[in-house]
C-alpha cells in the first residue's frame, strides 16, 4: 500500500464525504474515487459503504483507518528526523480544525511572501491531539485551539471565538436564540477518546463528563449529531450542512485560537511564523 493512497483513504474516512476529502487533499474527486476503489481491490474487501445519504466506514474500513493513522504518523516522524539530519530548510505546521478560516489563508500568504525559498509542510490533525503532534516531534509549530496541557510548550493567543451548540435543525432547541449548559444536561454528547488531553476534553464537554459516541474528526462530530441526535460544541461562524444548526452558548468562555511551539525551540522559522500569525489574526 502506498502512503499517498493511505492518506487519501484517511481523508475520506474522516470527512465521510468524497467531495470534502477532495477539497482537503487539493485534488479533484474522480481520481480520489479511483484511488479508493484500487485500495479496496488490493485489500479484497469494501472499506466504505456508499449511499445517497453519504459515506460510512465498513468494519474492515474502521480497522484500516486505525492502522493507516498509526502508519502515517510514523512516516511523518521519519520524514522529520531525516530532514533534520539533512539540514534542509523546512518547517512543518500542524493545523487543527478548519483550514478554510480566513486567518489561515492570510497567514499562509504572508508567510510564503516572507520565506519564498523554504519547504513548508502542513499536517492536518484530528481532534484527539490539540498540540497537533508537537510533543512527538511531528510538527514544529501548531495552529490550534486552547485549552490543553501547556507543559514544556510556549503558547500565544491569536483570537477568541464564541462557541455554540451543534444540533439537528429539527431539534426543538435549534429554534432558540441562545442556550445554557443546563439546557443540555439530559442530552448525549459526542466526546473524544479516553486518553485525550483532560483540559481539552473538559472544555468541549462543557466542564463535566458526558455519555455519547466517541469521535476523532470534525465530520465524525457532525455525523454523530445528524444520525444520533447527540449534541456538542463548535466555534460560531462556520458553515454547517442545512440539516444542522449552531445555537450560541452563553455560559462558556470563548474558544481561543492559538499558536504553540516547543519551549526553548530557537528555530528562526518558528519565531517568524509566530510573528506573521500574530499579524494575520489581527485583521
Write structural notes for this entry:
The structure is a single chain. β3, α5 (102-114) and β4 form a beta-alpha-beta unit. This protein has 283 residues and is α+β, with helices and mostly antiparallel strands. The chain has helices spanning 3-15, 18-25, 29-43, 59-86, 102-114, 198-204, 218-228, 268-280, and strands spanning 48-51, 54-57, 90-96, 119-125, 141-146, 153-161, 163-168, 232-235, 244-248, 255-262. The chain is globular, with a radius of gyration of 19 Å. It starts with a helix and ends with a helix. α1 packs across α2 (18-25). The mean pLDDT is 90.
Brief write-up:
The protein has 283 residues and is α+β, with helices and mostly antiparallel strands. Helix content is 38%, strand content 21%.
Amino acid at each position: 500500500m502506498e502512503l499517498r493512497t493511505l492518506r487519501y483513504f484517511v481523508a475520506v474516512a474522516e470527512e465521510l464525504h468524497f467531495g470534502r476529502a477532495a477539497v482537503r487533499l487539493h485534488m479533484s474527486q474522480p481520481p480520489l474515487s479511483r484511488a479508493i476503489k484500487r485500495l479496496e481491490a488490493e485489500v479484497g474487501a469494501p472499506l466504505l459503504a456508499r449511499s445517497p445519504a453519504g459515506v460510512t466506514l465498513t468494519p474492515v474500513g474502521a480497522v484500516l483507518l486505525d492502522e493507516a493513522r498509526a502508519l502515517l504518523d510514523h512516516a511523518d516522524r521519519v520524514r522529520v528526523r531525516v530532514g533534520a539530519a539533512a539540514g534542509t530548510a523546512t518547517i512543518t505546521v500542524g493545523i487543527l480544525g478548519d483550514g478554510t478560516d480566513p486567518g489561515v489563508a492570510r497567514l499562509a500568504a504572508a508567510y510564503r511572501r516572507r520565506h519564498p525559498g523554504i519547504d513548508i509542510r502542513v499536517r492536518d490533525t484530528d481532534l484527539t491531539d490539540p498540540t497537533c503532534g508537537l510533543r512527538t516531534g511531528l510538527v514544529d509549530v501548531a495552529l490550534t485551539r486552547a485549552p490543553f496541557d501547556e507543559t514544556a510548550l510556549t503558547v500565544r493567543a491569536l483570537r477568541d471565538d464564541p462557541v455554540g451548540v451543534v444540533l439537528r435543525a429539527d431539534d426543538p432547541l435549534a429554534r432558540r436564540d441562545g442556550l445554557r449548559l443546563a439546557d443540555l444536561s439530559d442530552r448525549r454528547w459526542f466526546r473524544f477518546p479516553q486518553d485525550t488531553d483532560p483540559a481539552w476534553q473538559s472544555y468541549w464537554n462543557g466542564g463535566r463528563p458526558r455519555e455519547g459516541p466517541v469521535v476523532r474528526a470534525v465530520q465524525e462530530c457532525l455525523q454523530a449529531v445528524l444520525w444520533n441526535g447527540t449534541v456538542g460544541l463548535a466555534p460560531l461562524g462556520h458553515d454547517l450542512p442545512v440539516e444542522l444548526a449552531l445555537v450560541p452558548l452563553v455560559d462558556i468562555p470563548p474558544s481561543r485560537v492559538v499558536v504553540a511551539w516547543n519551549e526553548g525551540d530557537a528555530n528562526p522559522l518558528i519565531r517568524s511564523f509566530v510573528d506573521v500569525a500574530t499579524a494575520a489574526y489581527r485583521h
